[in-house]
């Protein structure tokens, strides 16, 4: 029995010694060959990697395209906002220009109305001045007619008194005898209204003293013309003709802050006169 046990043990050891190298060799061959499932999985995995790469590439391209589209849309929105801002700015500028143009038109209209009113006022003034001038001419014609009618009725006594008054008022030395209104301290008599003065007096309105109502007041000759009494406060120059007040045309002007009577025949000097009603 003991022998049988030893034989069995030896046999088993022999079998194990033979089986172990064979198993190891088989495993080495299996490792070299590999399992078919693992080889197939690896082969499929190697096949699926390019597809995954392409899909990932497409996703990346799609994301880049979406990003580019968003950027383009953003640029379009920015352009639209810029266009709207420019449009509003142009509209504001146009409104400002229209407002400025309207203001210029309003100012031009106001100036035209003011000029029209001024022309209308000037026309009215000219019309009134023409009417006044015609009335003054009519008054002078009636005055001349009255003087013409009065001349024949003047008596020799009246003529003698008038001549005597003028002779007594004659200057011996004009340069030292006469005084201007400035030297007299200024004119203090009645002032004729300008429109009335233009109608009766001035260099263009000459007249003769002969035949006019006449009187002597305080030793000064006084005659009536144009509705006013006119007093000669200055003596008349000795070189004037003896009958200048009968035959010479005279006129009255306002110069150097006073009234003066001038003789057309001797226009270089004027006699200081005073107006009264």
Question: Would you kindly provide a written description of the structure presented here, covering whatever features stand out?
Answer:
- With 277 residues, the chain is an alpha+beta fold.
- It has 2 domains: 66-153; 155-276, no CATH class.
- It has 6 helices and 6 strands; from the N terminus they run αααααβββαβββ.
- The chain has helices spanning 2-33, 36-150, 156-168, 174-177, 194-200, 244-247; strands at residues 214-217, 220-225, 228-232, 250-255, 258-263, 266-276.
- A 6-stranded antiparallel β-sheet has the order 1-2-3-6-5-4.
- β1 and β2 (220-225) form a beta hairpin.
- α2 packs across α5.
- The chain is rod-shaped.
- The relative contact order is 0.07.
- The model is unreliable at 1-7 and 148-152 (pLDDT under 50).
**Sequence of secondary-structure elements:** HHHHHEEEHEEE
Fraction of residues in β-strands: 5-15%
Q: Name the overall outline.
A: rod-shaped
Number of H/I helices: 6
For the terminal residues, how far apart are their CA atoms?
195 Å
Mean pLDDT across residues: 80
Overall structural domain count: 2
Beta strand count: 6
Structural class: alpha+beta
């Amino acid at each position: 029995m003991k022998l049988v046990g030893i034989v069995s043990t030896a046999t088993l050891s022999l079998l194990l010694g033979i089986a172990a190298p064979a198993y190891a060799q088989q495993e080495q061959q299996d490792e070299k060959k590999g399992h078919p499932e693992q080889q197939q999985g690896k082969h499929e995995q190697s096949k699926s990697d390019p597809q995954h790469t392409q899909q990932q590439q497409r996703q990346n391209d799609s994301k880049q395209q979406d990003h580019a589209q968003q950027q383009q849309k953003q640029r379009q929105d920015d352009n639209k906002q810029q266009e709207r801002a420019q449009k509003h700015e142009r509209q504001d500028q146009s409104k400002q220009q229209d407002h400025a143009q309207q203001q210029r038109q309003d100012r031009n209209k106001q100036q035209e109305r003011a000029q029209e009113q001024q022309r209308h006022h000037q026309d009215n003034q000219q019309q009134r001045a023409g009417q006044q001038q015609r009335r003054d001419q009519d008054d002078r014609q009636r005055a001349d007619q009255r003087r013409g009618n009065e001349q024949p009725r003047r008596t020799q006594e009246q003529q003698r008194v008038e001549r005597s008054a003028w002779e007594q008022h004659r200057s011996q030395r004009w340069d030292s005898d006469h005084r201007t209104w400035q030297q007299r301290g200024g004119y203090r008599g009645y002032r004729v209204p300008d429109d009335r003065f233009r109608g009766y007096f001035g260099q263009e309105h000459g007249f003769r003293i002969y035949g006019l109502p006449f009187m002597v007041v305080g030793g000064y000759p006084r005659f009536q013309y144009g509705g006013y009494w006119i007093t000669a406060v200055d003596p008349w120059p000795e070189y004037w003709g003896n009958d200048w007040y009968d035959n010479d045309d005279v006129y009255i002007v306002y110069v150097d802050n006073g009234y003066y009577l001038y003789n057309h025949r001797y226009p270089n000097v004027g006699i200081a006169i005073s107006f009264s009603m």
